[in-house]
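Fold this sequence, please.
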Amino acid sequence: MSHERLAQKIQSKQALIGVIGLGYVGLPLIRAFTASGFRCLGFDVDQTKVDKLTAGQSYIKHIDSSAIQALITEKKFEPTSDMGRLGEADCIIICVPTPLNESRDPDLSYIEGTAHAIAKTLRPGQLVVLESTTHPTTTRVNVLPVLEATGLKVGQDYFLAFSPEREDPGNPHFQAATIPKVVGGYDTNSGDLACAMYGHAVVKVVRASSMEVAEACKILENTYRAVNIALVNELKMLYDKLGIDVWEVIDAAKTKPFGFQAFYPGPGLGGHCIPIDPFYLTWLARKHGEQTRFIELAGEINTHMPHYVVNRLGEFLNDNCKSIKGSKVALLGAAYKKDVDDPRESPSFELMKLLLRRGAVLTYNDPHVPSLPKMRHYPDLPAMDSQALTPEYLASQDCVLISTDHSAYDYDFIVQHSKMVLDTRNATKTVVRHREKIRKA
């Protein structure tokens, strides 16, 4: 039987693992599986990525090129853009993007396109697992019918499951292999095989009763963060008016050993998951005639934060007899969070758009993002390269806006040489001298 043969292959680590999408989720996953003794075949439609990996070059900061080179040399990992080779893999894991469209509805085109590519070579004895974050029922409604159209029977000929990715780029304490994995199978056989596969590569497998529970689990995790960040963002705007430092309030509150978890405000939400996933849930709710008012309110607050920051900048400049129009503004940080090179959904891009629209003379610095990448939602942003943080550069700017609090920044140096510093991350909290130059936003 297909189930027994695949179970044996997984048990003996003879199963070939195919990973579709060689980005911030796919590459760490490949590293986890190869470290546990499996061979991996990596698929990506971006030939540039495939070429770099084949040459042993990593394009993700927290994955060393030497590690990729070793996997290629030892023939443990082979990248390819040839989707016709999907039939070679025994287990196929889908790690493709799930963005929102212009009306903030789910864009499932990447998932559906990948399902059609798999269907072309689907054979008995294959396991297909979707990891892309999406709303509950996606695997059953959008992936399963495409695979079923081949005539093969799920749970008998091939197997299907969902297991949400839980990557946290730049977090030194957790990597793919050390983060518990939630797995929900279409049926018992599918769940057994998916759990067995992941069980070799990750520290713990948590079995869910269905694919939908596993899908809903990831949405809950990220909505929880989005709602709590919205709460402290709203409090920041209120406390600013009251002359209270919200970061000091949070530091005081987190001394409570129970009943409180610290979340911190910022210039807006960033990363692929937290700014996007709650909108999947609100879309699903509308389809079923329900409302998610709490989640939608949180989304509105977080989406408003770049506008709040720009308004604070306008007030700061105005107090110094300047306007945003014509002022030189240096934005520090293009990545969505500290110490990573990941710009996805970074609020810095919204800040750039708003500042340029209001006539600012804009430049930026980010030690991890040397040139601004082309961003899907910001096609009109001009090409820019990161500027060196010299005393002369800082002194020439009317205001320095800290959007991402990278550890590489010397904040004493930045404040010393700048005329004005607008801090959206409380990055300057330990700066003692020249605090009159600093305003928080």
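The chain has two domains: 2-209, 224-440. The first helix runs from residue 2 to 11.
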